[in-house]
Amino acid sequence: MRNMPKAVSRLWVLAVLATPIFMATSGCKSAPETPAAASAPANDDASLAVRVKSALAADPALRPLPMSVATYRGVVQLSGYVDSTDQIQRAIAVARSVAGVQSVNNDLYVRPR
């Protein structure tokens, strides 16, 4: 290196030092972004649950009843207690009438008197 001009030797040293740094950081890529479709079912399920709850609350016969609504990929799970089997059938019918509902799982029970 004694025969090289100063500028060339400095470039050589820089290249030797920069190569390991470049090699170490080139493998550190961020995780790929999740497509919007991956988070869409969660958002759709949440909005579907809100729409089903609103439809149940809009029905005067079902409004005062403590029912829970859960959704997963368009499947609605109704749970809680009602006063009669007619109310169970009505709640299922109301839930099925909401756009986007694929099916309804019934976990409603008639309260013991």
Describe the structure.
With 113 residues, this protein is of the alpha+beta class. The chain has a domain at 36-110: Histidine-containing Protein, Chain: A, CATH 3.30.1340. The chain has 3 helices and 3 strands. The protein has helices at 6-26, 36-58, 85-96; strands at residues 67-72, 75-82, 103-110. It starts with 5 loop residues before the first helix and ends with a strand. The relative contact order is 0.13. The model has no long low-confidence stretch (mean pLDDT 82).
For the structure shown, list the relevant keywords.
single chain, 113 residues, alpha+beta, Histidine-containing Protein, Chain: A, 3 strands, 50% helix, rod-shaped
Give the secondary structure arrangement, pairings included:
Blueprint: H1 6-26, H2 36-58, E1 67-72, E2 75-82, H3 85-96, E3 103-110
Parallel strand pairs: 2-3
Antiparallel strand pairs: 1-2
Shape assignment: rod-shaped
CATH class of the domain at 36-110: Alpha Beta
Please name the CATH architecture of the domain at 36-110. 2-Layer Sandwich
**Sheet with the most strands, sense and barrel status:** 3 strands, mixed
As a percent range, the share of helical residues equals 40-55%
Distance between the termini: 98 Å
Whole-number radius of gyration?
A: 31 Å
Q: DSSP strand (E) fraction?
A: 15-25%
Q: What is the CATH topology assignment of the domain at 36-110? A: Histidine-containing Protein, Chain: A
Query: What would you call the structural class?
Result: alpha+beta
- Strands of the widest sheet, in order across it, are 1-2-3
Task: Please trace the helix and strand order, writing H or E for each element.
Answer: HHEEHE
What is the number of beta strands? Answer: 3
Taking pLDDT < 50 over at least 5 consecutive residues as the criterion, the unreliable ranges are none
Number of helices: 3
The chain-level mean pLDDT equals: 82
